[in-house]
């Protein structure tokens, strides 16, 4: 147990985070240091879809991002799995060659969330190996609602 506690403390010290909140504090989360909110111009370049994400946080090289959109559409919990499949197909259509790491329904703070982790060729970047997604994944895993 002592080793586990030291490991957790070490991770907390070694991984400084940026605390953020969106949507009138309904969503609160932490990002690794070095992440920042993308400008609307950067979002337009990185996500050229008709409806890009509302908020995107990225690392300095714009190679790893975490995106959030709040929809006013009503969705009952029983339909979340179908909507996840629809969103996954839409993302795949919009970004051919997308490499999926995770596509799942995940419980965070007692609520079901769609959780996607993938690598894609950005419109404003040269081809690269898939980014180290673990950092982004950790941010989402440790989100507090």
Overview of this protein structure:
With 145 residues, the protein is of the alpha+beta class. The chain has one domain (23-141). Helix content is 30%, strand content 28%. The chain has helices spanning 2-14, 40-46, 80-94, 134-141; strands spanning 17-22, 27-32, 36-37, 55-58, 65-68, 99-108, 111-119. Strand 6 (99-108) and strand 7 form a beta hairpin. The relative contact order is 0.16.
Report the C-alpha radius of gyration, rounded.
Answer: 16 Å
Beta-strand share of residues: 25-35%
* Unreliably modeled segments: 1-15, 126-145
Q: Give the H and E element order.
A: HEEEHEEHEEH
Would you tell me the structural class of the helices and strands?
A: alpha+beta
Q: Give the tally of β-strands.
A: 7
* Number of domains as seen in the coordinates: 1
Strand line-up in the sheet with most strands: 3-4-5
Share in helix: 25-40%
Termini distance? 28 Å
Mean pLDDT: 73
Structure annotation, total helices: 4
Largest sheet: 3 strands, antiparallel
Assign an overall shape.
globular
What keywords describe this structure?
single chain, 145 residues, alpha+beta, 3-stranded antiparallel beta sheet, two-stranded antiparallel ribbon, 4 helices, 7 strands, 30% helix, 28% strand, globular, disordered N terminus
Short description:
The protein has one domain. Helix content is 30%, strand content 28%. It has four helices and seven strands.
Describe how the helices and strands are arranged:
Layout: H1 2-14, E1 17-22, E2 27-32, E3 36-37, H2 40-46, E4 55-58, E5 65-68, H3 80-94, E6 99-108, E7 111-119, H4 134-141
Antiparallel strand pairs: 1-2, 3-4, 4-5, 6-7
